[in-house]
Amino acid sequence: MVIPSYWARERKASHIEGEAIYDHPTPLDSNGTLLRTIESLKILKDKNFQLVIIIATTTEDINLEAETKVKNIITPALANLGINILLFTPSKLKKIYNLLISHGKEDYIKLLKLHGYPNIRNLCIFIPHILESEVALLIDDDEVFEDPFFISKAREFIGKNIKGKAINGVAGYYTREDGDYHIKKPFKDWMRYWDQFDRMNEAFDKIIGTKPRLKETPFVFGGNMIIHRNLFTTVPFDPNITRGEDIDFLINAKMFGFNFFLDNQLSLKHLPPPKAHPVWLQIREDIKRFIYERAKIKNQEELIGVNYVKPEDFDPYPGSFLKDDLEEKIEKSSQLLSRDYLLAGDMESSKEALNNISIAKTYANLHPNPFKSLVMLQKKWKEFIEFTYKREIRFDIKNIIEKESEYEIKPAFHNQITS
Fold first, then answer.
1. Which helix (H) or strand (E) holds 233?
2. Which residues pair with 224 in a beta bridge?
3. Distance CA 67, CA 283 (A)
4. Which of 77, 147, 259, 379 has the fewest CB atoms found within 10 Å of its own CB?
5. 260 pairs with which residues across the strands?
């Protein structure tokens, strides 16, 4: 089980250009939600797993403070937890960099970064690979376990077959504070065209709300995702995506012939803090991701080992945002959002909302062929994984990950490959 924990400067500090953007990183002068997530693990009947917490920060300036903060938060919870916790810190990542450099493998460094959601997700699968895990379970630090049998359910199908299809990945889902899985947002005029929440709820009803328990899914949740070793040693998360790296990973997986299913009995309660960024910025990040993913699908080529996918394969969500009417959705919703800001007297946000239209027109030029980039990335990832299969390399990286320091809690055991 891997849980990334995101940290930012103290609340009074302003965001600085170039710092990583996350939905709700915990300010250093707050304790955040991590302890709540860890304490909820006590309910689990099956605790035979290694827990890894990855410390990610919006800026390197606060790395050591964040490491100390996380240790101080989780230490009181250890006595009655019965689970071994291992911290992965920015300082450990630098040691891995130095190791790769010493072997003349500097080009692999770009595959391991603690900046941006997809890069951090790649560490969420790289660390289980090094620790010789058969399965990686990705969880977020703003969730709560309520099902005592969650782990046994998570293990139940992964790596098996259903109707001749290998179960390479299993997605659980989120429930909200009221126990419902639907997204509930007050309707605004701009949502008539940017109908993201409606399409998401439609997809949830189709996949979560119906039988059978396990079915192929067009969407996944990054904070409730089980990935088999066969998949995570073959396909990485794409670091060029700005957000929505979980669904983008699903698209990548399908392109390379892997199958994702959703288990409608595998839920976590999602209790996120309020998002710190304005609506126009949240939409902008989604615009970038959909433009990028649509281009990835449009630029597909016939290659050995690669499957052709269509936007319709991901209907109703995200498929409805991967089609030719995406520009119309962007333009009309941005105009209405801009008007709403203008009526509220927020001139700056009104301009930023309109700016989303021009950004959408130019963003595709920044990544002219995402499919080609993905193929090259996947090849590099497989080479890297093969390199780390060398006994001495794996031993050295594993030693870095496990090595005890003043910031860390010594692990007692590690799951081993079972097949």
1. none
2. 139
3. 32
4. 379
5. 169
Whole-number Å distance between alpha carbons of 370 and 236: 14
Calculate ∠ Cα 171-23-363, nearest 5°.
Answer: 90
379 and 386 Cβ atoms separated by less than 8 Å: no
Counts for the chain of helices (H) and strands (E), in that order = 13, 12
The CATH class for the domain spanning 2-401 reads: alpha beta
Q: pLDDT tens digits, the chain, 419 residues: what are they?
A: 999 999 999 887 666 777 788 888 999 999 899 999 999 999 999 999 999 999 999 999 999 999 999 999 888 777 778 888 899 999 999 999 999 999 999 999 999 999 999 999 999 999 999 999 999 999 999 999 999 999 999 999 999 999 899 999 999 999 999 999 999 999 999 999 999 999 999 999 999 999 999 999 999 999 999 999 999 999 999 999 988 999 999 999 999 999 999 999 999 999 998 876 899 999 999 999 999 999 999 999 999 999 999 999 999 999 999 999 999 999 999 999 999 999 999 999 999 999 999 999 999 888 889 999 999 999 999 999 999 999 899 999 999 999 854 334 444 433 433 33
Which positions ≥6 away from 68 have C-beta within 8 Å? Answer: 407
H or E element, residue 75: none
Residues 6+ apart with CB under 8 A from 189: 336, 339, 340
Is 55 within 8 Å of 88 (Cβ atoms)? Answer: yes
Length of the chain (residues): 419
Q: Token pair of 128, please?
A: 């289980």
Write out the two tokens for 94.
């630098």
For residue 377, give Cα distances in angstroms to 103, 121, 131, 220, 235. 21, 15, 23, 21, 9
Residues 80-114 as b/e (b if ≥16 CB within 10 A, e otherwise) read: ebebbbbbbbbebbebbbeebeeeebeebeebbbb
Q: At CA 344, angle to CA 341 and CA 347, rounded to 5? A: 55
| Calpha distance 410→394 (Å, rounded) | 19
What distance in Å separates the CA atoms of residue 76 and residue 48, rounded to the nearest whole number?
Answer: 21
CA dihedral 159, 164, 165, 168 (to 10 degrees): 10
